[in-house]
Each structure stands twice: as C-alpha cells, then as structure tokens.
Design goal:
Layout (H helix, E strand, L loop, with lengths): L1 H17 L1 H12 L1 H14 L6 H7 L3 H12 L2 H16 L4 H15 L5 E4 L12 E4 L12 H20 L12 H8 L1 H20 L5 H17 L2 H16 L8 H21 L10 H8 L8 H12 L5 H15 L4 H6 L9 H20 L18 H7 L2 H33 L3
Antiparallel strand pairs: 1-2
Length: 438
C-alpha cells in the first residue's frame, strides 16, 4: 500500500498542490475570508436566537445598520477575489502582483453589466441630442459578491498570465533609474493593462451587442453548473471529503487542492442562504463553507477530533504507552481548535496505513449524517461563517443560530471517536511493542 501511494498517488498530489493556478485560486478566495467572517459576526448579532431580539434591534434603529454591515462585506467577495487571484499568480511568477491585481480588478468591472440605463438630458439646449441619451446607472452589485467568484477566477488567471507575458518579454514603458520605483512600476503596467482591459471590453461588447448572456451568466452555466452538481449533492460532497483525506494522507494539504476548486460553489451557497434569511425566506442550501468546516472537517482534515480524543482517553490510562502520553498534549489542545498538523505529522497520520480507513471514512460519514439532520429539518441550515479555529459546539450554535447545531456536532464527534478508536487501539498496541523492545 505504501509503495502504491508513493509511486502513483504522491506525484499526482504533489503536482496539484504545486499548481500555480490552484494556489492562486486558493490564495485569492482566502483573501476574502475575513470579509465573510466579519459579515457573519454582524449577522449573528442581528439575528441572535433570543426571543424578541430582532424586534428589539429594529425598535432601537440598529437592525438596519447591522444588515448594512452584512451587505458591505458579503457583497465584495468576487471583487476581492479577482484581485487576490491575479496578485497571487503574478507573485508566484516573480512579477509585480499589485499592478496585476489592479488590472484584473478593472477587467472584472469592465465585463460586469450595468443595473440599468438612465435617460438624462444635458443642460445646454444648443447641443443636438438623440431622443434619449443613455448613461450607466451603476454596476450590478450582485455580480461583485459570491455570484461573481467564477468570473473572478477566469479573469484573475487569464489577466495575470497575460500581464506576466508582457512584463517578462519587456513589453512595457521604462523610465530612467532616477524615477522612484513606485512611479516606474505604475508606468510599466500601462501597455499590458491597456491591452488586457481592451480585450475584456471587446468580450463584453460582443456579448452585449448580440444580446447574449453576459460573462457572469456564462461562467455560472459552464463552471458553476457542473461544480454545483458535485458540490451540492450528498454523494458528490462525500467523494470530495474522501478525496481531501487521500491528499492529506500522502502529505499534501487537501484543503489547498480539492477544497480550493469547490469553495466558490460553497461560498455562493452560503451567500444564497444569507440573502434568503434576510428576506425572511426558507434557506435552501445545505452544503456551504461553514457546513464543511464545522460539521464535516471537525478537528481538521479527516475529522481528526475523534482521533485526538481517543489519544486523550488512552493517555489518561495508567497502562497507556509513553508515546501516547507524550503526544496527547501536543495534539488534543490544537485539535479542539481544528488545528491537526501535530497529529498529522506527529503521530503520524500521514502515510500511516493503520489509520487510513477511519481517516477517509470519518468525514464522509459526517457529510451523510449532517446532511440527513439538516435535510430532515432537525437542524437549521448554516447561515453564518465562523472562524475555522472556533471550537466545535460553539461553532455549531453560531453557524446555524440554533442549539441543535451544537447537538449535531456532539453526535458527529461521538461517531468520529467510535470510528477512530478501534484503529487507534492497533496503533497503541504497536507503541507498546516498540517500548517493550519487541
């Protein structure tokens, strides 16, 4: 098994983990995560599950401002992501990331349609005008949020690749060495920036002139459709959770590879739930980023909270092995905050065939159980983002707005312990044999 993993799986996983496009997508979307968490904090305050709380906030005139804070953060996810993706990709190519990010940001706005057209009249009556003079009334803000993440990925990667091509071939305006570096860098971006933005303007113009769907709608259909089928179905999400564990098992950060591809879908689902809750409508999306972070990967990739609690149990026993007693404090405390690198590489879990079955199975079972609980209505759907380091039980309550979210996490933790315990017993026996010199 180890030979097969090292020869077949490790090279594939390593290539995916080092892929510059995947790294850029991961970094770009991660750049927007603080906004998700901040917006979720406003939402939790605005909708705290205490009878009469929301009504009281409305009476004192605070509710509207809190929801404004939600809109001000959730509504910028696509905009921030396009800058972050282009920035990360160019930085990997050793090119100015800020200029690349700004060009991608401008391109993103260029392809984003306007809300509507307003007819205005000029004050000078001597100027001949057509019957109506159309001017933009503003961009469609919905495309700047999670709905625009797929276009952010496309434009961020393509614009950054084109910018890097121009700079590496020295197709840029160069100023004398005496000119401050900041000014020189801004001028070097003029030629590639003009070409890139013009290209996206032509794309927008062709689609608009022929009354075709805009780039956002096309991306939602071409990319969002297939990914949505995978990321919004219980079987697809179970396979993703299992694949995430396989990457982790060979030493590759599964969250930076598998989850980076699926995160736009889950973020979009969360934004849909937030909009539905704000409008007083039923929430529809089960699979969101807080669902994955707080109900599937409890304790980290592989749902290792079951493993670290099993370690803690054996560490307290008088006849427990010295190795278990030594690693317990190093793994249990971080594990409660969803930091499982000490267990992954200290126990280790990585390349440890003895723990492979529960490591793959635990998060897949978590998906199934949590999906069943939420789809049946026993537990409310997630509507807020919690920091990934927030301990379980508390995170379950905050992300669902219900104590049933915390209860579900307790049930999942018990299941994870039951899955890991028989396999850790085998590890414990191996530790004792080593200490006995056998």
């Amino acid at each position: 098994m180890n030979a097969f993993i090292e020869k077949k799986l490790m090279p594939i996983a390593a290539k995916m983990s080092a892929n510059k496009s995947l790294v850029a997508i991961r970094d770009g979307i991660t750049l927007s995560m603080p906004l998700l968490i901040i917006g979720s904090l406003f939402m939790i305050i605005a909708s705290f599950p205490i009878p009469g709380w929301e009504e009281w906030l409305g009476k004192i005139g605070v509710a509207g401002y809190l929801w404004k804070g939600v809109d001000g953060s959730f509504s910028l996810l696509g905009l921030v992501s396009v800058f972050g993706i282009a920035y990360s990709y160019s930085r990997q190519e050793k090119v100015d990331g800020v200029a690349s990010g700004l060009i991608a940001l401008s391109s993103f706005i260029t392809v984003t349609p306007y809300v509507n057209r307003a007819v205005v009249a000029l004050a000078n009556p001597n100027v001949a005008l057509p019957d109506g003079f159309a001017v933009p009334a503003g961009v469609n803000a919905s495309y700047l949020s999670a709905k625009g993440v797929f276009v952010a990925i496309i434009i961020g990667l393509i614009s950054a690749a084109m910018y890097n091509w121009f700079i590496k071939r020295d197709i840029q305006i160069k100023l004398p060495d005496a000119v401050p570096p900041a000014v020189s860098r801004s001028f070097s971006a003029i030629i590639p920036g003009a070409v890139i933005i013009t290209m996206w303007l032509i794309v927008y113009g062709i689609l608009d002139a022929n009354n075709l769907p805009n780039l956002h709608e096309l991306a939602q259909t071409v990319l969002g459709g297939p990914l949505g089928l995978i990321g919004s179905s219980v079987i697809g999400v179970m396979l993703i959770a299992g694949l995430n564990s396989i990457f982790w098992f060979v030493g590759i950060h599964g969250g930076n590879t598998v989850n980076a591809i699926m995160k736009p879908t889950w973020i979009d689902n969360l934004a849909s739930n937030v909009a539905a809750y704000k409008a007083g409508e039923p929430l529809q999306e089960i699979f969101t980023t807080p669902f994955m972070d707080n109900f599937v990967y409890i304790g980290g990739g592989g749902a290792t909270i079951g493993l670290v609690l099993a370690i803690a149990w054996y560490a307290r026993k008088k006849n427990g092995s010295k190795q278990t007693k030594a690693i317990a404090p190093l793994t249990v405390v971080p594990g409660l905050f969803n930091i499982n690198e000490p267990a992954m590489f200290g126990l280790p879990v990585v390349m440890n065939v003895t723990l492979l079955v529960p490591f793959i199975l635990a998060p897949m079972v978590n998906v199934l159980v949590a999906w069943a609980a939420m789809s049946s209505g026993l537990v409310p759907l997630t509507r807020a983002e919690a920091s990934w380091t927030m301990p379980p039980i508390l995170s379950g309550f905050l992300t669902t707005g219900s104590v049933m979210g915390a209860v579900l996490q307790i049930v999942l933790i018990i299941i994870d312990i039951a899955l890991y315990l028989p396999f850790f017993i085998a590890v414990e026996k191996h530790f004792k044999k080593q200490e006995a010199g056998e």
